[in-house]
Amino acid sequence: MKTFVDEVLRAVDHAGIVFRPGPTGSRAALACGPDVWEVIGVAHAVRDEQPGLAEDALLTQVASVTGLSGEQVAAAMRYCAEFGDEIDRRIWANLAAGGPALISES
SS3 for 80? Predict the structure, then answer.
């Protein structure tokens, strides 16, 4: 279980990442955007459609699909590289609850 101190340290190490409270607990999110798991869900979907896509092209494609900046997508991807298990659990929990894997257009 993450503590407040853990979250502060993670936010310091990962610029652009904040933690938001919610009914399922605190979750990593972009400071001015969606939760990290939502961005990574899009990245997984893009990767499934285009398995040979290079990392920089993946970042560009995810930014295009989500309307986020490349910097925001890169921040989410860096956070996921370190805390991928946490992000994958969020994605799977969302899918198990019948939710979409992709972030909504808003």
Answer: helix
30-70: per-residue pLDDT in tens? 999 999 999 999 999 999 999 999 999 999 999 999 999 99
Query: pTM surpassing 0.85?
Result: yes
DSSP structure class, residue 69: -
- CA-wise closest residue to 50 among 58, 40, 59: 58
Contact 50, 73 (CB under 8 A): no
Confidence of residue 1 (pLDDT cuts 50, 70, 90): low
First-to-last alpha carbon distance for the chain, in angstroms, is 31
Q: Is the dihedral of CA 41, 88, 100, 14 positive or negative?
A: negative
List all residues 6 or more positions away from 43 whose beta carbon is below 8 Å from its beta carbon.
58, 62, 73, 76, 77, 80
The DSSP string of 8-62 is HHHHHHSTTEEEE--TT--EEEETTSSBHHHHHHHHHHHHHH-TT--HHHHHHHH
